[in-house]
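Interim report, section 4.2 (structural modelling).
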Amino acid sequence: MTTVKECLQLTRPDGTAEEPFWFRRGDDVLFGVYNSPADRSSTAGIVCIHNGGYNMTAHHNQMWTRLCRQAAADGLHALRFDLTGTGDSTGTDVRNPYGQAADDTLAAVEWLQARGVERVVLVGTCRGAMIALGAAPRTPGLAGVFLCAPAIVKLSPDHNGLEPWQAPTVRQAIMDGLSLRVARNLVADGEYRRFVAMRAGARLRRVAASRARSGRQVTEASPRPGGGRMYPLQWLAQQQVPVKVYLGRQDAHYRQLEEVRSGALGRLIDGSPSIDVEVEDGSVHRFINIAGQERFLSAVRQWALSLLCVPQPA
Amino acid sequence: MTGQVLDNGASWRDATTGIEERACFLPFDGGAVMVHTHRPPSPSHLGVVICSPTDRQHMRNYRRDALIGRSLARAGIAAVRFDYRGTGNSDFLQEPRSLETMEADVMHVAEWFEAASGVSQLGFVAEGLSSLPVARVSQRYPLGPVALVEPVASPRRFYRHLQRTRLVAEARDGGAEWPLQRNLAATLEVDGWADILGYRLDASAYRSAVQRDLISDFGTAERRVLVVQLDKRDEIREELAEVVARLAALGFATDSAVIKMEHAWWHIPDWEPDIADEENERLVPAVTQWFRSVSGLAEARSS
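Predicted structure of the assembly:
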């Protein structure tokens, strides 16, 4: 019989420590993992926000686990957590980046602040990026926001924040379908054919639902983050909080950025010295290759360290 | 308030049901495995080790496994979940992750859980590739119930399927980083490892896995087995029907369940699990009910 004894906190040879924990947000308890630096007097930290849904504290291929352990080794406090209704947290995921999920993030920041953290960088991927934006105006000691693969159209000051999803145009759908690569796979792979059929069915259902909703009159606008009339990205630009927008050239979000570049969003991004856009070759959004994951983690690390004034690694 | 009581942050307890959930690290071989326990308020005769699938499937099924753990605890059955070393919140693995390292992890967690929880009978839930290490480890727990959810009967077929998916993703997304159209075996031969949709597969792990076969790994120790299929079709697929038939032929008391739902496209990188809630609503109670039904049987037999 084994004599192994479990431990609540793991201390590593470099003096950093790692512990799973639960914290309260409203009626729910959320799960998180906290990495503390060897120098506990450090006042700088990062909070990692995944995209909800079926994600988990570790993110794909231990990305958040790696990032947080490295951050602690770099002298930062680091926290990754599950949003309400995802991973190990309780409750229901309502998929609203500016409501419950932003509150989750603020509760995580508060937990970190109780450990002496005064300056924090929020890091979010995909919907987690939108959640970071939603939480940013209310985050005390905010040092920066790293937005990986955010839905660009939702960053726009033109966007009313009410209907986040738009049906693809017929032209776009046809162009997608005409792709040689897609056609080749449709011919060669029965599984892919079933997948495409499933996606097409799902899209049709969403279009039908969207049309059914379009007849309704919207009488009440969604509350704007920060309590004001300003969209988060505008607020961050005005406050000169550093923002990094990290995109993959192959991702739809990058194409969206190019399309809206001449509009209000483009003017906001290009005219704000505190907003920086970094575009990687390939796809970033789904983290489907290890090299891309490594580049993303490296970009976050370097950027967070530069903002939090921790000496950067050689 | 829903009555969740925090215990210094290390665990929480539902004030209504008395169920306690705790997360901790389990030291192992110079590293540590992250485990989550779900304990019912009364001592449990049966404990269940929930063994998640790997890689993208691990992420896709993570929430579901948490719900299975909670559901089992509500049914009076203690449960434990864990991340294999080299995955999730567990420590990184120095050697390549393989079916052998996974088997060692299952064994380690099972032994610890049996001692720590005081259960007299261990059962297992195994999903995807975990079915192979669980098939072997469960031999040490005769009469223990084993639920196989979408098990991998043939690792060779499983990897062939992954390779196809990888090529589809490559074709669709393009990008300079993808090695052009080499098959998996050739990639592993040349590079020593392959990137399967953002997860590493080492040549040594692949070579060892493709020699394995689920039924052979089951051995002969008596256990009760449930085979669960999640699929759009009404009938059990040929591959799983063969698993059921071969287990039955070997003398295992074998049940099967077909849970009809949209196919789980866990391997498609941008697949959004719109069906996840539907799946959870059907699978979680089905697995829980099966363990409830067999736990009384196991208790009677062991006493």
